[in-house]
Amino acid sequence: MRKPPFAWRVFVLAFVPVCGVLVGSLTAVRMMMADQVKEGLRSSLRQTHEFLVRIRSQQELQNTRMLSVIAENPSLKAGFALLRLAGAGGEQERRTLEDQILEISQSLGFDLVLAANHDGEWTAGVRRQGEGWTQVDRGNVERSGSGLMRLEGKTYAITAIPVNLGEENLGALAVGRLFDFSEFTTPAVLTHNHRVLESNVPGVTRQEIEAALAGCESSSECELRLNGETYLSLPVQKLSLGRGYVVRSLQSVDAASMPMEVVMTRVLRLAGTVAVLLLVGVSVVASKSVVRPLTDLANRLSENWKLGEMKPVNILATTREVEELARAFNHAALALSDAQGRLSNAYLEFIQSMASAIDARDVYTAGHSLRVSEYSCAIGQAVGLDEHELEALRVGALLHDVGKIGVPDAVLQKPGRLTDEEFEIIKQHPVIGKRIVERVEGFHRYLPIVELHHESFDGSGYPHGLRGDEVPKEVRIVRVADSYDAMTSDRPYRKGMSHEAAMEILRQCSGTHFDPELVEAFASLGSNPVRGRDLVSLAEAVGTSGNVVLPELAKEWQQ
Amino acid sequence: MIWTGLAVTGGTLGAGNIEGTIRVTRRLTRQRVTPVVPAYHRGVVAPAEQPSAGWDREELDRVAVYLESSAELPSTPVIAQLEQRGRRFLSHTLVVPAGSTVSFPNRDPIFHNVFSLSRAKSFDLGNYRQNETRSVVFTKAGVVQVYCHLHPNMAASIVVTPNKWAAKPSPAGAFVLEAVPPGRHAVVVWHPSAGSFRKNVQVGGGAVQLDFEIPVDERQP
């Protein structure tokens, strides 16, 4: 797996925490808003409750006034007195009172009228049923005073007052209205001992409300979910409803927070997007500014690497750490280039000794390799090779005849003409050279020169008979330089040709043996192709450390 | 008006029947401005006032006809009954001659009470249960209004007549006072709300025809 770039790490480290803080604070704002909404709901519910309590107490007052008038009805009092006298078991007395109540109730606007004997026991009662009135089954009546009363599946709001004759209490009279939520402006639920008796929440059954309310304390605020909506439910305090009765009003939190939610969502989306974009931008800039010096440094280093050099880099950087890094690198680079210098010296020495070994084998061609190298470099410069190619050309040319090591002295040092067989042996030297160089690490770039420097332009050369562009340019250059030097050098059996004669022959063979372009380039160098550069070239060839063999060769060649 | 003809029999100074008819008419009454109580409640509409078919018959049932005379006329006391049934006295008006005993049996399954504060007779029979009865002797002539203390809507009138010539009109409004001693008398037609209507009559052999027209306020429902 590829390792993530440093920029990424910086970006993530800059982006993620701030993003987290951003998300956190937005969430906090949202929660605060939700709290605010709930607080608003709560206070609106409380207001409703106060209103309700006021209405209810007014009703109660009205009922009490009305009742006290009714209770002063002498006939009714006579009925109560009758019952009082009869005591328990006076069924006819009870029915008499019941009959009276029935008669009264028809002219009152209540839904339930009850009479209690002086023991506080409801003994007679009638309730509205449909158009008419029916007796109340006494067994079902709860024994309670004012408040709510549950009777035959209905809930009544009861107001009761005592009926007195002078000082003596005869009983009590109570009137009741069917309890409904007509006064409620909000959804409400009436529960008795956790059972839901009435509700005006649209579209929800009592069972569902009961299930939703199951987790709620009877006298505290509570949140519940109905029909997928969240409601805030607050019991109505200060409403004397009797034991176990609780009226809760509900407000949909969702409905209340919807408008704010919409605005919030829009704002948060906008602010969030802007903030994230800003953050991305800032993070990118931050990561870039952190990474740029490093990248610069890395680029410079990798450029060095490409050039294969270890030169010190510019330590001027924008940050201290990078400067340190550059400085450390420079130290390492210095050490390395030092080592490299020593290595290349050793390498150079090796090549030079190789070259001189070749030349030493063939005394007649002493200095040949060095000269060919010089000519080649001159041609190479003329045709515009770059520094690296020239370097390869220079070393390659020095080595081009290394294969001659494998040619027997008898053949190599034979004065006079060679036989065909001997010539065949000689022709083996590029292949032998190839085999030698092949095994030396780092010398592969010189292989073509060693192997192919006897290939001709028209394909008549050896060992492969390659033609034209099949042979690399530097090899073609060495081919020209080699031939020129062979012709101009003195041999035991002949004197070397003049420059002009050699050039004439080169020209003649241009296109057959030689690349015409290169011949032309060589010709353009004039009669002394390396003149004026000799010492410099020699110095280059010898390198900085004093060399024993090459200066001698150079001297020999100059003579 | 039907005139059956004045049958003038030969007998002079003989007892004779007084016959007649009573017609109840409606008296124009003031428009009521105060709605009835139930109209306040729950939007119950008070039933429109329209005379029921048997209105005049009902009113006739409240009417008593009796004879007044300056002469001492005999009274034959009777034993009568005024039942309390269905939270009502049956009937509205009872006509008895002075000295009669009236019992008030309670036929309802609830208690009733009978009392009167009338000048002719004031009494209170107390509360008593179903099928119990209590009775009162009415010695003095006059109208006795009877109520039930437990049921303020219950009311009846007992017309105690000075002599035995007394009657209630038939549903058609006809009445007959039979064998009225000759002489100058007055026939009184009494209605609880309309009051008394008096007509003098000379009885002296043969039947006498008397017709009354009684304007009655319509009772409130």
Report the largest inter-chain contact: A-B, 16 and 18 residues
Q: Note the beta-strand portion of chain B.
A: over 45%
Q: What share of residues of chain B is helical?
A: under 10%
**Class from secondary-structure proportions of chain A:** alpha+beta
Following the backbone from N to C, one meets helices and strands of chain B in this order, namely EHEEEEEEEEEEEEEEEE
Number of strands of chain B: 17
- This entry's quaternary arrangement is heterodimer
Note the overall shape of chain B. Answer: globular
Major β-sheet profile of chain B: 4 strands, antiparallel
| Strand fraction of chain A | 5-15%
Number of beta-strand segments of chain A: 11
Distance between the termini of chain A: 65 Å
- Overall average pLDDT of chain A: 81
Read across the widest sheet of chain A, the strand sequence of neighbours is 3-2-1-6-5-4
Structural class of chain B: mainly beta
Structure write-up:
The complex is a heterodimer of chains A (559) and B (221). Chain A has helices at 6-71, 74-86, 91-107, 206-213, 253-307, 320-361, 368-382, 387-399, 409-412, 420-426, 429-438, 447-452, 473-488, 499-508, 516-523, 534-542, 549-558, and strands at 112-117, 122-129, 132-135, 147-151, 154-165, 168-178, 188-192, 195-199, 222-226, 229-235, 245-252. Chain A has 559 residues and is α+β, with helices and mostly antiparallel strands. In chain A, the strands form 2 sheets. In chain A, strands 3-2-1-6-5-4 form a 6-stranded antiparallel beta sheet. Mean pLDDT of chain B is 83; it is low at 1-12 and 38-46. The chains are: A alpha+beta (559), B mainly beta (221). At the A-B interface, α2 and α3 of A face loops of B.
Task: Name its key features.
heterodimer, A: 559 residues, alpha+beta, five-stranded antiparallel beta sheet, 14% strand, disordered C terminus, B: 221 residues, mainly beta, 3% helix, globular, disordered N terminus
Give the secondary structure arrangement, pairings included:
The complex is a heterodimer of chains A (559) and B (221).
Chain A: H1 6-71, H2 74-86, H3 91-107, E1 112-117, E2 122-129, E3 132-135, E4 147-151, E5 154-165, E6 168-178, E7 188-192, E8 195-199, H4 206-213, E9 222-226, E10 229-235, E11 245-252, H5 253-307, H6 320-361, H7 368-382, H8 387-399, H9 409-412, H10 420-426, H11 429-438, H12 447-452, H13 473-488, H14 499-508, H15 516-523, H16 534-542, H17 549-558
Antiparallel strand pairs in A: 1-2, 1-6, 2-3, 4-5, 5-6, 7-8, 7-11, 9-10, 10-11
Chain B: E1 16-26, H1 55-61, E2 64-69, E3 79-81, E4 83-85, E5 88-90, E6 93-97, E7 100-103, E8 112-117, E9 122-128, E10 135-138, E11 142-147, E12 155-161, E13 166-167, E14 174-180, E15 183-191, E16 195-203, E17 208-216
Parallel strand pairs in B: 1-17, 3-7, 6-12
Antiparallel strand pairs in B: 1-14, 2-13, 2-15, 4-5, 7-10, 8-9, 11-12, 15-16
